[in-house]
Amino acid sequence: MKFKYSLFYEKWGYLFGPVLFVFLMACNQKKETSMDNRMAFSNNKIVNEKVTSAESYKIVKVSDGDTFWCEDTAGERIKVRLIGIDAPEPRNYFKKKKQPFGKEASAYATKLLLNKSVKLEMDLNPLDQYGRTLAYAYLSDGTFINEKIVKDGYAVLMTIQPNVKHVERLVAAQRYAKERQLGLWNKTNN
């Protein structure tokens, strides 16, 4: 019996052994649960180690019209996606294609936000599927950034349940921009 096992192992063990090892290691990996992702923030205070608990953040990079990078006083950086709005894409990203008025929206957000301090307000889901922090952002003078970008016509309303805390304000901001043909609502921009 020992001989048959040894022969079997010599013949098939070298093939299936590494496959079995990889399979077992993959099954044993620690995985974040959705609860871990959803518990990143509590009572508008950031409590996990991915994002620190500073109340004010300095914006260090603007990716596009609705996404930016900021850092706290300790230098920890986080990527923030503004809740409730969708700005046109300034360039191709993976499956997303460059859209009309994208460069203008990105330039507007850069002028509005770069090197400014902001406070972040969370809604029910603090992270999106890509791990970005979802937030409503406010400048130090109290300006509601999400609303201002929509009201000035550089983004449109985009609500995703359950993050709808300020949906009425964003609907009113879009109506304002559309009625006045501001930004991307201006017929000459289409």
Could you walk me through the main structural features you see in this protein, from its secondary elements to its overall organization?
Strand 1 and strand 2 form a beta hairpin. The protein has a domain of 130 residues: OB fold (Dihydrolipoamide Acetyltransferase, E2P) (Beta Barrel). The protein is built from five helices and nine strands; from the N terminus they run H-H-E-E-E-E-E-E-H-E-E-H-E-H. Helix content is 34%, strand content 21%. The radius of gyration is 23 Å and the shape is globular. Strands 3-4-5-8-7 form a five-stranded mixed beta barrel. A two-stranded antiparallel sheet has the order 1-2. A two-stranded antiparallel ribbon has the order 6-9. Helix 4 packs parallel to helix 5. About 14% of the residues have low confidence. The chain has 190 residues and is an alpha+beta fold.
Considering the chains and any ligands shown, give keywords for the structure.
single chain; 190 residues; alpha+beta; OB fold (Dihydrolipoamide Acetyltransferase, E2P); five-stranded mixed barrel; two-stranded antiparallel ribbon; 5 helices; globular
